[in-house]
Write a structure and sequence with these properties.
Layout: H1 28-35, E1 37-38, H2 46-54, E2 59-60, H3 62-72, E3 77-79, H4 87-98, E4 108-111, H5 115-128, E5 136-139, H6 145-154, E6 158-161, H7 163-171, E7 182-186, H8 188-193, H9 197-206, E8 227-230
Parallel strand pairs: 3-8, 4-6, 4-7, 5-6, 7-8
Antiparallel strand pairs: 1-2
Helix pairs in contact: 3-4, 4-5, 7-9
């Protein structure tokens, strides 16, 4: 699904400038404001909606409004929109709402091409899942293994990481993907451009069939019904 070419960035709210046009006019700005949909109206649970409202995030952007009803229903989805149009929350809210919190093994896995993106996604999920107590761990190369291994031993709900470090932790038997119910490939096209296709295929094979559901930009070849792809 393709979002509008110009959408405000995630974390900011549309500026509500009062329209001079009366209801029933043809002023497009008036109808854009009237069409805004809140996260609560999209079926987001109160804990997540409250956490977002604390940050001033109330209305959903187009990619979120289109993606969330599908993702919350547990369907596979490929979301395509420009950078900064809200894709992270489009898949992140669905991830947080569909997993069980408080277990020892990760319930969701989000694969990102770079450390910077992994950290950004982690930050957004921690904000949205703050009132749920969501434990989110980012793993990536260029950082010591010990803190990541320690966090995995204590238990996490969501792991966000780059392909190489994820596979290293799986190989060392520190990362157990057997309970993953939702898989997200964030900026899937970029990962393919960077040559990560063999690593992505190995990761997908290690995730249970029930968790293979996500891609964030085509081409994304998820093999089952729970993959969300955001690009």
């Amino acid at each position: 699904m393709t979002g509008p070419a110009t959408v405000p960035p995630v974390g900011s709210r549309p500026t509500r400038v009062p329209s001079r046009a009366a209801p029933g006019s043809e002023d497009p700005a008036y109808w854009r404001l009237k069409a805004l949909t809140t996260f609560r109206e999209l079926g987001v649970v109160p804990e997540i909606a409250d956490a977002l409202e604390t940050e001033g995030i109330v209305d959903a952007f187009p990619i979120q409004e289109l993606a969330l009803p599908i993702a919350l229903g547990g369907h596979d989805i490929i979301g395509q929109a420009r950078t900064g149009t809200g894709k992270t929350l489009a898949f992140g809210i669905a991830v947080l709402q569909r997993i069980e919190h408080g277990g020892r093994k990760p319930q969701a896995l989000i694969v990102a091409p770079t450390r910077e993106l992994a950290l950004q996604v982690t930050d957004d999920l921690l904000v949205a899942g703050g009132k749920l107590g969501t434990r989110v761990l980012s793993v990536y190369g260029g950082r010591a293994y010990e803190p990541q291994i320690s966090a995995l031993r204590e238990g996490v709900d969501v792991v966000v990481g780059t392909p190489g470090r994820l596979l290293d932790l799986v190989k060392q038997k520190h990362l157990d993907l057997s309970q993953v119910g939702v898989l997200v490939l964030d900026e899937a096209d970029r990962m393919l451009d960077l040559g990560f296709l063999p690593d992505i295929e190995r990761i997908i094979k290690k995730v249970p069939d029930a968790g293979r559901r996500c891609c964030s930009r085509p081409p994304c070849r998820a093999r089952s019904s729970r993959c969300r792809a955001a690009t």
